[in-house]
Amino acid sequence: MLEVTELACLRGDRMLFADVALTVQAGELVRIAGPNGVGKTSLLRLLCGLAQPEHGQVSWKGQRLERTRERFHREALYLGHAAALNDLLTPLENLRFAAACHGLGVDAGRCELALERIGLGPQRDLPAKVLSQGQRRRVGLARLYLSENVPLWVLDEPFTALDVAAVRDLADWLDAHCAHGGMVVMTTHQDVPFATPMRTFDLAESAC
Amino acid sequence: MLSVFLEVLRRDLLLAWRNRADVLVTLAFFTIVACLFPFGVGAEPNLLRTIAPGVLWVAALLATLLSLHRLFAQDHTDGVLEQLLLSPEPPVLWVLAKVLAHWLTTAVPLIVAAPALALLFDMTQSATMVLVLSLLLGTPILSLLGGVGAALTLGLRGGGMLLALLVLPLFVPILIFGAGAVDADLAGTGAAAHLMLLGGGSLAALALAPWASAAALRIAVE
Predict the structure, then answer these.
(1) Claim: this prediction has a pTM higher than 0.90
(2) CATH 3.50.50.60: does it fit domain A2-206?
(3) Are B86 and A70 an interchain contact pair (Cβ–Cβ within 8 Å)?
(4) Contacts of B180 (CB under 8 A, 6+ apart)
């Protein structure tokens, strides 16, 4: 489980939030809510160890993040604002590279299946620069279909630029992940129907 | 553990191939800079023979510098760097793979082109051999140290200029020993000492620079 205590985040000279405490148990779906600029993305980046907190600590399965970095990175997946695509590579090449870097050890066949599942089957061999915003987003999200054994998913606005059918399919997949004991922490401004009871953590209450 | 290294190396080489105009620009820059000198200083063969090692080394250094800012910039804007930092493998591995890919795609073409330019300056055969050897041993230091500079200036406004100011002074010893190796060979004292120093420098940079780059990248992404 993921545990956050007394977390504070400094951005430039401004304290974004302080004293954030949050615990995510297996099977939970947590939505970080709050208006723009309150520090939702900063919080997610702190959660996955991309940034260092000004104060407080993040622990994973009872160990501080700095101590268990390698294991944590194996057991957590972060999808940020940027789709992490290179324009000169095809979606298939991008996905295979992302999966290999994450140590997922999946073959080309599984990557092709994941791309088909997310609706990019016909585009898998086109360079990423010809894809639309929504399609670029989907290439990044295709990693979710390879990561069912990665317990913690940290998703920053996963539903942006997706069409209605894709949103529903992704919501189902997040539900399935939680049903299998996974954890999802995400931000979204959209109302997405989840079967899993969603816990909303309002970051505005901790804002400084 | 090796798989991340190989994946990153393969990807960067593939990207260099798809973007091969960049590689050619670096090579063309090297050739043109070297060719400008005879126009400037006159075509006196003895003079050209004397300045050739220094000219070719400075040209190689500037050509490397020209391509350095590309090392991490694209991955930084795309968000690939974040994902690499979240990889369970140590960052040193993939930093090394990226630097190796940079060396293979910029320094190796320069080293291959150097003998042809040496001919232009009427360098002797043994001096050309030493020049190629000194480039082979010295350019890895340029890529490795340059990688640290590129990581430190990542995402800064005017990063390219700052990168030049940051790494060019660090390249001075490499220039001295690289060009010095050829001079020593021409003077008949033997280039072994210079070449060994360059080799030693390469090994030291190989041992230390990737760690510094990885630390700087972590800060840049934060």
Answers:
(1) yes
(2) no
(3) no
(4) B194
